[in-house]
Structures are given as structure tokens and as C-alpha cells.
Amino acid sequence: MNSPLFERQATGGVVARQGFEYQDAFLLEQLPALLSHGAFSHLVSECLGDIEFRYHRPGGGTFCAAIEAKREQLSVNEVWAEVARFEEMHDAAPDEFVRFQLVCGDYSGVFDPLFNKLKRLHGVAASLNPDSAVLTAAQQEVEDTIVAMGQTAATARFVMERVSFIKYSDGNVSGAFAAALSQHLPSLDDMGGKQRTAFETRCRTLVNESVKGVVHRRDLEAALLESTPGLAADWLASPTQVQLRPTRSPTIEELWLDVGRFNGDDRGQLGSQAWTDLQSQLKGVAQFVQATRARAAVALSAKQRMSLAATVGYCFSATRGFTLQMEHNAGAAFDTAEHDRAAGPFFTSAEGAGSSDEGVVSISFPYSGQADVAAAAAGLGLLNAPQLHLESAGVIDGLPALNTAVHEAKAALVAFRSARQLRRVHLFVKAPSVFAMALGHRLNGVGPVQLYDWVVNAYQPTALLAQ
């Protein structure tokens, strides 16, 4: 069996590297965009494609966007030959090689009608419903256009779903690089001319090195920090966006996880393995972030169900070196890097005796949840468990109030576990989800914690945070 890695097409560029200024210019211009893509991991030149961009893949490994770049105008046959090779790459590794770009100086005018249709299909048609008859008709028309050019219907669908055709000129590389910086990284608009030149020079070096080995995201970020010391603090404070989505993301560029079922009405029936697998995926994202950049801040939506919010906070915990920028109601944002507290106390507490080495803790505000938790404990075989109930009529009206509530709850949990010598805490939270996420973020030192969600008028077990 012959590996595509050693095909002549894959190795020819390494042998004949001279004259590859066009390919390098295109790669250089893409670097600012890559830094704006949260899931971008690394790049390499002259592997299976002329250029390959790699992105974090939920569950492990990477997605690949493979690029072929040719300065000259490609003939019709040459274009379809490149598309055929893209299909071969995808068929060999369909969950790895998922996006393809064909870049050249110009295309034959024969392609103009097709490219115009593809532009609208991937542009304004994105506003249409997936089951729209208008969208279906447009897709069929594009398919018919490609079939009329001598290709199969399968190739037509492949092109629509996975291939981009780009006309690129390398006439003003430095100007294009500066424009890309402004477009994709507007936070760096204060970069001076000398700093921009220094960063471009470092990036050119990395482009040259990409044919010899892998260039990692961390290399690009380090080049940026070393070239722009005056902007380093702001860059290091900027967050990585993690999208918690109800379904799979249609893009590979954003850092995402499909958490839909953990917010759904069946989340109490998913079973412990599903919640364990979720933690593995979340920790995989956390490890990816730490491995690929020096920035510790993560931005995400706290508008999740209680157990999911706490689990996310736990996997991006303060003890792992993260800070969270949590978006909540009406766009309100809470940043765990800020530690101001409101005057306390926030909670009142009550304890119940018990002889078990597993304890029950309820945290509820602004409305009491103690009665529901007491009933749940009886149904879950926890009648002999010692209990701690934290309640408040207060509200989270800002970050200081949130910090006080989390600090008091964490301290009470630690003291309760220590005093009772508990091997496990069963935690029931009835509060704003941003509190649950912030508490999970600080939930160390309390041993294993079993979470519960209120689902269909009853508390049901969800995630076990096994510290």
C-alpha cells in the first residue's frame, strides 16, 4: 500500500522549492486570519497539499484545510484534476481532510457562471432555511452546472460542500499583510509601522520554516508578542472564544463543542458515561487552549443548564490556570480575573445531622429550594446523609455580588466536607447559571461532587466531578 504522504505530487514541492514565492505570499497573508480562528492549531507546507491548516477537532485530532496554490492560470482540465485529487484526499480520511482551497492567478472565463452561483450559494443563501425550496433549487442548479462541465453529481456535491476557488495576486505582499492584520485582528490597530514590519519579518521566517516542519499557533503568537511588546499585555488579556453550541458547528475555524443534549429535557437520562465523555471533550479543549497560546482567558456563554454550566466551569478551572469571561442575561459579562467582592454575608446556612459519609448540599437563591432537595434526598437513598443548605434572598447584580456568593459557597462546602469527613458531596443548585459556572470554576478542594439538575419536576443525577 502506497501512502499519499510519499506521492510525487506531495514531495515535488520540497525538491523544487525555488520559485515558490507565490505560495509563500498567499500563506503569509493568511496568518492574521489564522490567529483570529480560535480552533487553529498549526500549519505545514508541502505535506499532502501545498499548504495545510490544521484545526482542533472535538474528541481529538485535527480537521485539515488543504490548499493548492498555482501562480499561473489553470486550464479547465487542470482545475478538475485538482478537484479530483481533493476528492481522493477526502475519501482517504473523510473526518480529517474536510476543506479545500484551489488558489491561482486566474481561472478560465468558462468558470465565471459557476463561480458566481457558488458565491451566492455560500453567501446570501446562508440566510435561507435548510429545508427551503429556494435553497434546494439553487443547489440543484449548481449541481447541473457542474455536471454540464463533464463532472459527476457526486463531484458537484463535493465542490458545493467543501471546495473554495480563490483568485489571488501577489503583487503587493506587504500591503496585503497589513490589510489582513487590520481586517482580522482589529485589536492590533495601534501597532506602529516598525512593529508591523518586525512582525511581518518574523512571519516570513515562519513561512520559510513551514516546509521543513510544523509551524504551531504558539509560534505565531510568540512572534506577535516579541514584535509588539507595547501591545503584549492587551493581547495576553484577550480571551479565546469557546462556542457551546446546540448542534455541530458548520465551520472548523471556531473552537466549539456540541452540548445540545446536555441542555435538553432528556439530560437527566443521559447516564454517567455521557457526562464523563463531555468532561473529556471539555478538558480536551482546555488542554488545546493551554498548549497553543499563552493567553489564559476563555470567553463563553453562561446561559446553560445548571449541571452543564458547573461542569464547564470545572473543566476550565482556576486551578488549571484559566480565567472565565462569562456572558449572561442581556449581554452582561462577568470576568473571574477580577476579584472585588460585595459586602457579605450573602447566604444564610442551615445544617442537618446524618451519619453517612456522603453529604447533601443545596444552594438556592433568590428563591428557596430546600424542600425540593429534602424530598430528592429521600428518593435518592440519602436520608442518612448530613445536609447543608445555603439560601439567600439576594441577587447577582454585578461581579462583586457574584464573587461574594461564590466565595461563601466554596468556603462552606470545604468546611462542611472537612467537618463531616465526607467522601462525596451531592450538590443541588437552584440559582442563576452564571453562579453555577463560576462555582464550578472554583470547585477544588471539596472531593468528588455529584451534580443534579431539576428535570421534569424532579432532581436527576447528571455529572460527577471526580476531583
Q: Briefly, what is this?
A:
The protein is an alpha/beta fold and 467 residues long. The protein has helices spanning 8-15, 21-36, 76-92, 112-122, 133-147, 153-162, 173-184, 193-209, 217-227, 232-237, 260-263, 272-292, 306-315, 370-379, 399-420, 433-441, and strands spanning 40-45, 51-56, 62-74, 97-107, 163-167, 215-216, 240-245, 255-258, 297-301, 323-327, 333-335, 348-352, 358-364, 387-391, 424-430, 449-454, 459-465. It has two domains: 4-167, no CATH class; 239-467, no CATH class.
Question: What attributes characterize this protein structure?
Answer:
six-stranded mixed beta sheet, 467 residues, 16 helices, 17 strands, alpha/beta
> What spatial order of strands do you see in the largest sheet?
5-4-3-2-1-6
Query: Could you list the spans in which at least 5 consecutive residues all have pLDDT below 50?
Result: 14-19
User: How would you state the average pLDDT, rounded?
Assistant: 94
Distance between the termini: 46 Å
Q: Which oligomerization state do the chains in this entry correspond to? A: single chain
Beta-strand proportion: 15-25%
- Largest β sheet strand count, sense and barrel closure: 6 strands, mixed
SS-based structural class?
A: alpha/beta
What is the CA-atom radius of gyration, in angstroms? 27 Å
Number of helices: 16
What is the share of helical residues? Answer: 40-55%
Strands, total number:
17
How many domains comprise the coordinates? Answer: 2
How would you describe the shape? elongated
